[in-house]
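Weekly puzzle thread! Below is a chain. First person to post its structure in token form gets bragging rights.
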Amino acid sequence: MTAITSPTAFSRLWLRWKALRLPWRKQFLCGSDLAGNTFWEFRLSGQESERLRRIVKYPREAQMSDVEVAPQWIQWLRHTRRDPPSIQEQQMDVVRQERMKVLAAEADAKWAAKDSYLEMPAQAPTPSAKSDLDRMAQQFLPPQSTEETRHSPGAQVKQTESTREARSEQASPWAASTKTKDEPESWSPKTIRR
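Winning reply:
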């Protein structure tokens, strides 16, 4: 928003005259914003029962691409707000926006100071952590005794099969259990003739 110079005494008097709601007038001045835009209400000719239309008039020296209307005035233009905003309310909104920019800059600086979870950590794993990983990997790899078995694929397959069988027999608690006489038999339904 670009601030326009304050109006002269004559223009203030003219604006005050235009704001009077005289019965013969069709257009009334409702207020202005900090950028110098004026906001008007008007009646369409012959339609007394309809609500008043609302428009904004920009200053002559303003470029159309540079015109910004405050959110309070947009609400008033769209009839979602009954009364037009005062100058004090508009000034407080500008102060609030400046305060929000400062708070947003502080929050951005706070987040920039924290480590990102998307980046790799700067440290390499410690030797104790590396040795723990090696021990865990050796638990799941089959043991290899000689250089010959490492290089011959057939011997390696036989060795892995035998180690799997040995591990499954040792690890499975259900393999040792046998059926006793106290255990009930499974239910099998009888066929019915129709």
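Puzzle host: Confirmed. Bonus trivia for everyone else. The beta strands are 27-32, 38-42, 53-57.
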